[in-house]
Amino acid sequence: MAYRVKLNLKKLKIWRSLKVRLFLIMFLMGVIPSIFMRVGILENYESRAVDVRTSDVQTQLRIIANHLITYNYLQDTSSEMIGAELEQLSNLYNGRVVIVNGNLKVVKDTYGISEGKVIISEEVIRCMKGTNTVNYDEVNGFIEITVPIVETVSAQNATEDMPEGTEIVRGVMLTSVSTDSIVMTMEILNRKAQIVEIIIVFCIFAIALVLAQILIRPFDRISKAIGEVKEGYTNESISVPDYLETEHIVNAFNSLLVRMKTIDDSRQDFVANVSHELKTPITSVKVLADSLLAQKDVPAELYHEFMVDIAEEVERENKIINDLLALVKMDKPAAELNISVVNINTLAETILKRIRPIARKKNVEVTLISKREILAEVDEVKMSLILTNLVENAIKYNKEQGKVDVTLDADHQFFTIEVADTGIGIPQESQEQIYERFYRVDKSHSREIGGTGLGLAITRSAVLRHRGSIRLESVEGKGSTFTVKIPLTRVLV
Which of 156-165, 339-348, 370-379 shows the lowest mean pLDDT across its residues? Predict the structure, then answer.
């Protein structure tokens, strides 16, 4: 039942409101203490009133107990003065007074019910031994008090066994005092306290409502500002520094806004670059084809030369499209990685064996340095892309008689692939942009070398899909070193 109530509360949108929750917290924080205060005051009053009533009655009972000894009332109950005092005490507190002698026999009962009877109770027995007792019966509304009737041995009656000053309990005064007046006073106080409490509740309700509205205003301003950005009225950063929490939310949103602007600008640049890169080979093909069509009796050699150029441009177009498709696939969720246990050393040897003929054409020496055997849980295809792109770039942008060193190493958590070349290097100002799509450091030189400008973008995306990192160290004119660090197992991600 409680679970269903909780489930229904979660479904209510109003319960999910921060304003409502703030209101309820402040309202309850004000109301609950006032309720406890009222109950505490009443209980304290009751306890205090009972203590005062008990103290007053005990004082009067001790006075009367002395009179009982003085007038020898336990043996002779004919004293009208004692009788009047007992009746007065009984009427004053709307109670009952019973006097018991040393033989536990009732010699006086202001109700006239138990006179002549023997009374045996724990309270009377304890009082006979000189111990006062007080019992408060909250249910029936009375206080029961026992006071010993004590006789002090005078000098005339003193003996060796009982020297002067010895106190002897001759009897017990058993008194029941009504607490009706206390209960009535408590009821009056309770009614007045409830009226005050209702007024306090209304005041707390109004204060909590106003404070909740005031406290939630910064969040309303954030919501309004975000709405304006969403509707396109503005794309400026928002500022609501009222609270530390709102400042954190605003800072996070502003960072997201900057990120979205960057992505939007990148998307526009990407579309422009794609259009340009795809249009360039087509334009070349069209120019070559138009040249052939414009000429009559084209020699076979020229025709063959033009067709070779056209085929190269088509191949270039095909490579751009394939790289774009690879990049799009790389942008999909990491869950689509085809993870398996791969021997990185064997994979690197296979890739370098395939690439070495390209290196030999440029007189570049490629060396594999394996410091230890590495078995890792990775996507083999994407790891091949990473190695291939890095090594091919190291060869393409190298010098004559240059070197490329591929170093494999691992610790207990990560493995690293380091590709170092002795090539032309990358200027410091361009090192942060080399992973952008279609970005080239030297466009004219890059045209001669070939490529699509997507290799490093694909490489970085593949590394990030493996929850790894890629780092560049480069000195212009001396060479570059790319270091890839990837977890050995998927548990680390």
Answer: 156-165
DSSP code string of 333-397: -GGG--EEEEEHHHHHHHHHHHHHHHHHHTT-EEEEEESS--EEEEEHHHHHHHHHHHHHHHHHT
**Domains of the chain as residue ranges with CATH:** 21-184 (3.30.450.20), 246-330 (1.10.287.130), 334-492 (3.30.565.10)
CA distances to 277, 306, 408, 410, 485 from 413, rounded to whole Å, are 41, 54, 14, 8, 10
Closest by alpha carbon to 59, among 93, 83, 94, 109? Answer: 93
According to DSSP, the β-strands at 167-178 and 142-152 are: antiparallel
Highest mean pLDDT among 128-132, 237-241, 255-259, 284-288: 128-132
CA angle 188–193–196, rounded 5-degree value: 135
For 47, what's the count of Cα atoms within 13 Å in the CB-facing half-sphere?
6
Q: How far is CA 356 from CA 160, 404, 448, 453, in A?
A: 130, 11, 20, 22
Under DSSP, the state recorded for 234 is -
Residue 493 is predicted with a pLDDT of 42
Question: CA 188, 189, 195, 200: dihedral to nearest 10 degrees?
Answer: 180
Cβ–Cβ under 8 Å, residues 365 and 352: no
Residues 158-206 have pLDDT tens digits of: 777 777 777 888 889 889 988 888 888 888 888 888 888 888 888 888 8
Q: Could you give the CA distance from residue 98 to residue 104 in angstroms, rounded to a whole number?
A: 11
Half-sphere exposure of 433 (CA within 13 A, CB side): 11
Q: What is the largest CA-CA distance in the chain?
A: 167
Q: Is the pLDDT of residue 217 over 60?
A: yes
User: Across the chain, what does the average pLDDT equal?
Assistant: 81
Query: Looking at residue 486, what is its pLDDT?
Result: 93
